[in-house]
Amino acid sequence: MSRALLAIETATSACSVALSHDQQTINRSQVGNNIHSQVVLEMIAELFAEFEVSAKSLSAVAVGQGPGSFTGLRIGIGVAQGIAYGGGCPMIGVSSLAALAWQAKQAVPEANAVLAGIDARMGEIYCAEYSVQSEFPEVFGDIQVLAPELIASSKVNITLAGNAWHEYQQQLPDSLREYKLPEPNLMLPDATAVLALARKKFEQGETIEPAAFVPDYIRNNVAKKSAKK
In 3D, which of 1, 4, 32, 5 has the Cα closest to residue 16? Predict the structure, then answer.
């Protein structure tokens, strides 16, 4: 029996799952506030039933590692860890911002650079800049959490992706406000993108044991760095 790969993305108000098996991919997605714990297991069960597989059939469980909603990340990663433990397989972490960059490249094939931004609440944006000249996004610099007016791009002709740019449009620097705001399909990271990026990581052996997997909150990391100064 060929192995399957499951992906989960819960970093934002979108709760999505995707499953690949025998070179086919199916997915489910719902958007809403505080729905993740209510729908994610049901959606995964639907995918397992459709492909007639179980956790034991999985090569790995991929999950959006953040940044994003603390609660959403805890739910998605907790579910992913439980399934990985049950299936006896490793996990793969994928940046939720990298997932947005991949989605942007699929929607805008001519794009060379993507600025991905997720609303971090408290007047801030989780953001990172990616080169998308190849099939897989490559991040420039670090993922950061910044006030909208402090965000700048090192590239020209960038493509914006993520829900932050609509939310904070009026506070963005003039250099960013000239770019087209994301279409609806580029607002929220999706498990299909997580799955696509996880395949490459799996092939390269970039897996993590469930017990060692941690979210990439970013804001917590920034707070810790500030405390050390």
Answer: 32
User: How does pLDDT run across 49-71, given as a tens digit for each residue?
Assistant: 999 999 999 999 999 999 999 99
Angle at 45 between CA 15 and CA 100, to 5 degrees: 25
Residue 189's nearest CA partner among 4, 27, 50, 1 is 27
Are residue 130 and residue 177 in the same domain, yes or no? Answer: yes
For tokens 């959606």, name the residue.
Answer: 43
> How many C-beta atoms surround the C-beta of residue 188 within 10 A?
25
The answer to whether residue 1 scores a pLDDT higher than 70 is no
CA distances from 130 to 140, 180, 193, 197 (A): 6, 17, 15, 14
Look up the domain containing 106 and give its range.
97-186
Whether the CB-CB separation of 21 and 49 falls below 8 Å is answered with no
What pLDDT, on the 0 to 100 scale, is given for residue 152? 87
CA distance 163 to 56: 36
Report how far residue 194's alpha carbon sits from residue 7's, in angstroms, rounded to the nearest whole number.
6
Same domain as 91, residue 17: yes
Number of domains in the chain: 2
pLDDT at res. 157: 87
Can you read off the two tokens belonging to residue 139?
């991040």
